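To whoever is covering the structure queue this week,

Two jobs came back overnight. Logging them here so there's a record in the thread.

Job A:
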Amino acid sequence: MTSLPTVPFTLSRAGVVMTPEPGNDLEAEGVLNPASGRGPDGELYILPRLVAAGNVSRVGLAKVKIDDGVPVGIEREGVVLAPDEGWERGKNNAGTEDPRTTWVESLAKHLMTYVAYGPMGPRLAMAHSTDLRNWERLGPCFFEYQADLSMDLNLFPNKDAVFFPEPVNDPDGVPSYAMLHRPMWDLGWIREGEGEHLPAGVTDNRPGIWISYVPVDDVQRDIRNLVHMGKHKQVALSEFDFEELKIGGGPAPLRIDEGWLIIHHGVSGALEKSAFDHQQKVNYSAAAMILDADDPSKVIARSDKPLLAPETDDEKSGIVPNVVFPTAIEEIEGQLFVFYGMADSKIGVARLDRI
């Protein structure tokens, strides 16, 4: 177990901001796991995952209604990303899922990571925008081969990716854009009996948080280089009972005095069948860690208990019960709020406060 300091923040519920619209076929199986950002108009928007019948996901856009400094609802403004490309669709599945967005000032762009649920299962993909409405795809993410891992990370399904909002130094001191992500080692879902393949030096088979980098100079020269990530390092694995099965990243890292604040999710319980099926016996909670400012692959503080766990009816009952899944952080009138998926069905919001 870790002996790291705990994280001096709390989460407290502030309400439900989005529920499926009756009669809206695009939301028949839930609204959940939103990205977020400020538009050119200065307004706050969320980009929810909209799930239609058959588990087909799209990314929507909704303006956040704010009352007395607290998000209280949304105004729908349509769909901004759908599984329109061939590689985002399989014969029996399709989806542009679980977007995370980061405003990167040095690029004057919102960077989106999302999960393209295509013929080979979940694969990370990227897009960029200046206004949150018009997104240009950069395509699938490519992880450069790294000999010391003795493994091709492109073989594996991957989720929960998100960019840092500003350049950091990579392991060699090169100013870089960095991305957290969560590879999953079990290939049995695609080739029966293949099982798990772990990179060299990895002894724990549970999916955890990794970091990869791309040099700033490469991206400034051509934004399309953003998809070519390298210098991969494992950041964190499960440590505590509430995250015994796996952990994964959430909102974009937030710069605080101590380093980079990460709100992540931890999963406990029991997985049934494929990890990609709707699970009914798992429990998703929100927790936090702080990464070193100079070396964000290093954890310097960590929650030993959830900051928010499923307790309300909206969090305990839904498409996937017992889920609190944080995906976005925004500041509203000086107060930080975390937006999160509730039981894969609705979207809630919680205050983030320093103790």
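Job B:
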Amino acid sequence: MTTAGIFRIGIDLGGTKTEGVLLDPTDLVLMRERRATPLAEGYQAILESVAQLVRDLAARVPAEASYSVGVGIPGSVDAVTGLVRNANSVCLIGRPFQIDLERLLGRRVGVRNDADCFTLAECRKGAGVGRQVVFGVIMGTGCGGGICIDGVVREGPHRISGEWGHVSIDPAGAPCYCGNRGCIETKISGSGVEAAFLARNGVSLTMEEIVVAARRGEARALLAFDTFLDNFGRSLGGLISVLDPDAVVLGGGLSNIEELYHAGVERVRHYAFHNDLRTPILKNELGDSAGVFGAAWIGM
């Protein structure tokens, strides 16, 4: 399929929501819709939900036009087996998601990691435009990353480029679904911070409630929030020391926490291997679900 003059369908499959977009050949948004992800109902329900959203978007494509389909998932498709790996929506792990979706739709579908899709979108139309090397971060239910070099998002031979969320920074830390302990994802994702707060205090609060309480000066929340910012600085400072990107772009629901862009940046400066850190740490420009556009642009 040639890429000129086609419509594009993008799907961003998240743990709580699935979002779809239909772009015309000039990248104008014709339709955008969010639906709840039926995570509790399991793999088949998720597969059919994604397929139905694609069909509903495709129904808006003119009959004489062609279109592509791309899907961002919270994991990756193994290049050898075709099975999903490293998904924090664990019901996808070991499943031939791309093959099954192509069978349901009767057409080819591009599938990439959701952080790769986010990074591509921000480098093509958002905060990363014009920068040579960009590290894109998704901080939400999980924690992912993507690396864009000269406008191309790198996958790597194992399709794990940018997966900083599963670097262990605390061997004595909480267990992660990946099998390690103290992964970055357990430290700075919303679910990780919530789990740590519950374990320490015996009280369940959402990430949003923790942030609000910390801003009010409540002691338990202040400690949790300060720990979150310090882990953010340690994680991103180490990443910058390795990659030395031209910019870092934050996405996902937690990217809306304003403290990340001042107090969080100060922690990054503390941990990075340079005494005059100049790496801009930027908020996304396409919204916290920018990955849906990247999914559309990687479609097949």
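Note for Job B: The longest helix spans residues 219-243.

Please reply-all if you pick these up so we don't duplicate work.
Q.
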